């Protein structure tokens, strides 16, 4: 997300230095007295942020691996709290004994998209989006996705 804000592209060193400087100033600025502020940045290109000297603006870096099992998916859905117990049970039935593979950022996007749907259809929509992304295996053989 940060690289998109900076208009960074993978071909050549092009990016918006003006946007980079503005972000650095804002990230380093202390919140108003008596207030706390949490800034979260996501990237799949930590090396680029390091080159831009942007990593120092964050107090910590956390690597979040892709979700790889149905159990991990259900745990993430429970932590976010966007689906109720009944909805998570339906999702659990669909991912039981199946291999999943999705990054947390993409999962959050799919959750948000499905929450825009009528509650009666949101689980079906979430599962459809999940499959469309190729995040759920149809058959799992020899450690490879059969549908990708």
Write out the strand line-up for the largest beta sheet, numbering strands in chain order. 1-2
Q: Which class of the largest domain in CATH terms?
A: Mainly Alpha
Structural class: mainly alpha
Largest sheet: 2 strands, antiparallel
- Low-confidence stretches are 139-148
Instruction: List the helices and strands in order.
Output: HHHEHHEHHEE
* Strand count: 4
By CATH, the architecture of the largest domain is named Orthogonal Bundle
Anisotropy-based shape: elongated
Please give a structural write-up.
Residues 66-133 form the NSF AAA+ ATPase lid domain. Keywords: ATP-binding, Cytoplasm, ER-Golgi transport, Hydrolase, Magnesium, Metal-binding, Nucleotide-binding, Protein transport, Transport. Its main location: cytoplasm. GO terms for molecular function: ATP binding; ATP hydrolysis activity; metal ion binding. The protein is mostly helical. It has 2 domains: 2-57, no CATH class; 67-145, Orthogonal Bundle (Helicase, Ruva Protein, domain 3). It is 45% helix and 7% strand. The protein is built from 7 helices and 4 strands; from the N terminus they run αααβααβααββ. The chain has helices at residues 2-5, 17-28, 46-51, 70-80, 85-95, 104-115, 122-132, and strands at residues 67-69, 99-102, 140-141, 144-145. Strand 3 (140-141) and strand 4 (144-145) form a beta hairpin. Helix 4 (70-80) runs antiparallel to helix 5 and helix 6 (104-115) runs antiparallel to helix 7. It is elongated. The model is unreliable at 139-148 (pLDDT under 50).
């Amino acid at each position: 997300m940060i690289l998109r804000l900076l208009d960074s592209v993978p071909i050549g060193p092009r990016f918006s230095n003006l946007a980079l400087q503005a972000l650095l100033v804002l990230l380093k600025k202390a919140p108003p007295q008596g207030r706390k502020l949490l800034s979260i940045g996501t990237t799949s290109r930590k090396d680029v942020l390091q080159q831009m000297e942007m990593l120092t603006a964050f107090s910590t870096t956390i690597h979040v691996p892709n979700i790889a099992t149905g159990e991990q998916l259900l745990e993430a859905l429970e932590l976010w709290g966007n689906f109720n117990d009944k909805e998570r049970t339906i999702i659990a039935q669909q991912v039981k004994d199946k291999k999943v593979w999705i990054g947390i950022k993409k999962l959050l996007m799919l959750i948000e998209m499905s929450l825009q749907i009528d509650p009666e259809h949101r689980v079906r929509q979430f599962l459809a989006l999940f499959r469309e992304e190729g995040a759920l295996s149809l058959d799992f053989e020899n450690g490879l996705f059969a549908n990708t």
